[in-house]
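Model: You mentioned two targets. I'll fold them one after the other.
Researcher: Yes, keep them separate.
Model: Target one:
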Amino acid sequence: MKTPVLHQIHERSGGRIAEYAGWMLPIDYGSVIREVNAVRTKAGLFDVSHMGRFDVWGEAALASLQELLTNDAARLADGAGQYTLMCNHDGGVKDDLIVYRRSADLYFLVVNAANLDKDKAWISGHLAAGARLTDCTSDTTLFALQGPESVRILGHAGMPEAEQVRRFHLTEGRIAGADIIAARTGYTGEDGFEITCRNQDAERIWASLLSAGEPYGLIPCGLAARDVLRTEAGLPLYGHELDEQTTPVEASLMRWVKLDKGRFIGRDAIAAVLQRGPERKLIGIEMEGRVVPRAGDKVESAVGEGRVTSGTFSPTLGRGIALAYMPPAAEEGDLVKVVIHGKPRPGRLRKLPLYSRKAV
């Protein structure tokens, strides 16, 4: 079982530690609701070092990524990134990830923890001559600073230039005298940054960020709050909304699939599903009241049955919410029944995201 560099600090800070994707990680620091509210209104700091981090480099790096990924990496300028998918030959999603261009011959990938070994083997097996992969995961630590106060906190910690970083772009800087890479992205539906540093610098950077963020209400947060936040924001989780039997068409992710860029693995299969239409689609559910749906619960509707892929109680919306795959005829506003512990409970279908900071 792997442990992050800050494992003992998380324990001393009151973190409840449990296993996730082969790692022992902080699940919460006493109150998931408090942590969710902090990220929505102020800021939270997550240790997400379990996420995989690869450098793909060499003169054939771009050509290799264009073959592997659904989005168009050729559109990236230095410092820019994009959300993208990596599919199998049948169009099923092997993983969803973010790719950043550091330079013309160097790309930085952040992949899902549960897929790290699988992704590493798949990418390495499809690299053209003149391209290489370096796994940086074990040598680096990754933090996620999330929430509306994030940019001010990062500035107070010694990076005032963070305010100028655009969404899905990264910059290099220093915190507590240590070099870092800060990318303006996250998995919560809020503004924020994912910060990569060397392992030997992780402890003082974590402490520096918490100290700089104290006047702004920053608190440490665990993976349980992160899961609630991403569900509210309608963001898919691999193994729940995405897997190798699910295409980007079904998952409503075609915005990040560029069929016109040329050949890539899975392109023809995805185009075929798009042409004939998917057999299901991902949509949100808001429950009546505080009853909580869970993954695997059956969803009954006038147009057929579906299945919950992720469910939780939303502190932001004050009710139970879910992501679910439903028949393609299902529409926003439709009444449904979610069968929870054998009892049908009323809810209503909603477009994703269920929460957006632009809408509040």
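Model: Target two:
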Amino acid sequence: MKQILLVAGARPNFVKLAPLYDALSARPESYRPTVVHTGQHYDEKMSDVFFKQLEIPEPDINLGIGSGTHGFQTGRVLIEIEKLMLSQRPDMVVVFGDVNSTLAAAIAAVKLRIPVAHVEAGLRSCDWSMPEEINRIVADRVSTLLLTTCEGANVNLLREGANEDSIHFVGNIMIDSLVKFLPRADRLNVLDDCKVEKGRYILVTMHRPGNVDDCDQLSKITEMLSGLARLAPVVFPMHPRTRKKLLEFELSIGDSSVFENSNLRVVEPLGYIEFLKLQKEAAAVVTDSGGIQEETTFLGVPCLTVRPNTERPVTITDGTNSLIGLNPKKIVDYAERYLEEGFSSNRRPLLWDGNTAGRVVDVFDKFFEMPMITDTVKETELTSMRL
């Protein structure tokens, strides 16, 4: 039996981890999955509720890292997860996405000669000002198995010199969770709670440091929110970082506080299932998130991405995403058109079908069938590394 360490650090990681945990657990004769929560997102609203809703058991290990600068957070995870790997000696470490925990766990594992599988490998924004881009590239460089969501990611990896045999196009594992939990989301009354009607509201999320940590940029976001709220109700689950910066910069929408505008429904961060329901029924979603670009594509809902670039161009070519940048007037114009004319799309990228986790386990099966180092050699290596 192979022990597989599944490392999660932030909300998007949990959505990707859940279906793989289920698929591995369905093969108890072959795999023993161990869930490691680094604690990068560590409060009830930002992580715990996701474990409950996604039906993941309580993490086997919680490193309790918490917040901090990129270097501090990455360093803390690296130190603590190396200790864990030395004691557990897993047969493989699986990392997800592009957060600091992903980078740290991948580096710790490869230095201990433990195979690394990177779920969502090969995505590129080509923007080195994004910490996530650095995390993606380094994690891919040290990973043994590169599990990709789209053919464009394969091209990126080959261009960078990755071994073709290490690349496996498996599809988008986030969609596995969406497909599983969409029927439950359909039964929720969250639209009533937010006092909005199907197809007659706009859903907004903003959290990236490049958008919310700069006063001028955040001022444009409040201008955008004000313009959208003049068109229709706006549901705005506010990230703690965004809330903190709005108060710090004393920003407002028009003559009203951002928290008082009557057509702006500012709510606390939502659970996965509640947010899924709000995405599905929105006239449009305005966001700077990566995963939401993918979910809206599957749901056929227009997405307006408030960034200058995206690491998920397939959501534009084969989906519902439009890359707008921080242009308040343009965003309002797009949203007004969708409110007036509606929007319908059934375009979905290849293998975004809810069956990715099974394909990942198939890759693991083939990998472990290959000649591997013996347990004796592995023990010798790990013992020398402890010294």
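Researcher: Noted. Anything on target two?
Model: The chain has two domains: 2-171+351-386, 182-341.
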